[in-house]
Amino acid sequence: MKGLPAETDFIVIGAGVAGLRAAIELADAGPVLVLAKKEVMNSSAQSLPGETAALSDEEEVILHLQDTLIAGDGLCLPQAVKTLVDDAPERIEEVIAWGNQFDRNKTKLTFETEALYSHSHVLRAPGSTAGAAILRALHAKLQTRKNISLLEFEFCTGLVAENQRVTGVSLISEKGLPEEVSCSAVLLATGGVGQIYRNTTNAETATGDGVATAFRAGAEVGDIEFIQFHPTTLYMKKAPRFLLSEGLRREGAYLRNIEMDRFMGKYHPLAEQAPEDVVARAIMHEMEISRAKDPFVYLDLTHLNATRVQKRFPRIYATCMKQNIDITEDVIPVRPAAQFSVGGVRTDLEGRTSLAGLYAAGETASTGVHGANRFASNSLLEGLVYGARAGRAMRAELKQTRKVPSKEKKAASQNGPVDAGIEELIGQIQDIMWKDAGIVRTRSGMLEAVKVLEGLAPRVTHPRTRRSHEAANLHLAGLLVARSALAREESRGAHYRTDYPGHDDKKYLKHSVIKGESVRFV
Ligand SMILES: Cc1cc2nc3c(=O)[nH]c(=O)nc-3n(C[C@H](O)[C@H](O)[C@H](O)COP(=O)(O)OP(=O)(O)OC[C@H]3O[C@@H](n4cnc5c(N)ncnc54)[C@H](O)[C@@H]3O)c2cc1C
Is 0.90 topped by the overall pTM? Predict the structure, then answer.
């Protein structure tokens, strides 16, 4: 298949771990069109430092399940977690067979511990990140399948639906033209919504396109208020927020405020070893009381053995060196940043959304597997497991009838006058989300966020270019997060409100579902 077809059997939007895994599953059933808005190795998986994928040694599967349920703070769907851990060995074995390598001790896979969990549950890839390595293996496998056509720089702008059924997608093609392609089923695997925040570790592609597109078409979005924030990312004004893993604190790194005082002892008996969300909130508080215009705190490794630090964290060492920071001699300026979208487009365990013909997988989806907070390293595995399951379920859609819409070609401008001021608009969205619907939330703050976003609505109503579509998607995804967070009057998992600091199991041991402007709990 060369170029965009008028119709195909299956369309997969997104070429990250979830999208590619689904496409491989679909290839035996019929032609698959995989579309990515950027080059394929530019998904968030590509930029991951020291990345790990969850898997447990056979005897410890039950511990992986338990740790995931604990991290999810009461909201995980147990069946979704069970499915994840049950399917995991097969999914990991196949990516190994397709060329991915994980660290081994002789022939046996090496399992490592991460964060404060009960067992060794993560795999690392030698010399590179597990995320990028898995993506490369999937990509190599995909090249061997004749039925799959992977096209880059094709930007999905919406879904085409007929008789309550999704029958295709609309897009801005690589050539900048509006196109439509029809199909039997569409999978959204566009990653998360991290770019709604001023500070984020996410790739620039994570503009919530899948969530916004599905929501506009009438699909249910769930648990979207739960955004996981990483406490320590390198803070250099114009540089991307590079993740400084919790491994540094486990190794003995201290956190210091701008007065150079260690402060974590004031917030938690475990000091720097406290849970991630506690550390993130403590840093936010220290930044606030510093009253600095550009606040940050420091991560300090200078008291640790320099040779060991360099050996244990070569990527972090090299990245900081590029910013002229020698982490064995200098303290590192850090800020928290958005890391992972826990909720998303609501699906069942086979990736089916509430709209016929529409599926979602990976970070775009909300399967219930993460509950209210993600267990570290489960997301790559989620992409593999639920990507494959969605692919399998989509094959059945071939029986459905489909319609070929006429291809419409209008002049589309990539950078015309409509884009004037778009970056400033995106900046406004990111600033209000960071300030009022970020790590520490209050009712008044979120009301303000909703009000500001609603006020910006006229500026995103008629997007024409890719960037203005991204602005509209960020705007909508931001509104969904703020409205859901406002409705959940408790603190749970990654969602923290100072006005409701505790759990309210009676009312909110439930999943949020947002449709239109109303949020309900089920
Ligand atoms: C810094 C960092 C560290 C992480 N560390 C870990 C870890 O250690 N372990 C772990 O398991 N997880 C980790 N994660 C999370 C994990 O990497 C992601 O959840 C996962 O890679 C998401 O995969 P995905 O397939 O859902 O989406 P992505 O990999 O984000 O892919 C999205 C795809 O959709 C495409 N796309 C988006 N919008 C459109 C559109 N409108 N039209 C066409 N194409 C579109 C993009 O171009 C891209 O190809 C980390 C994430 C970050 C940012």
Answer: yes
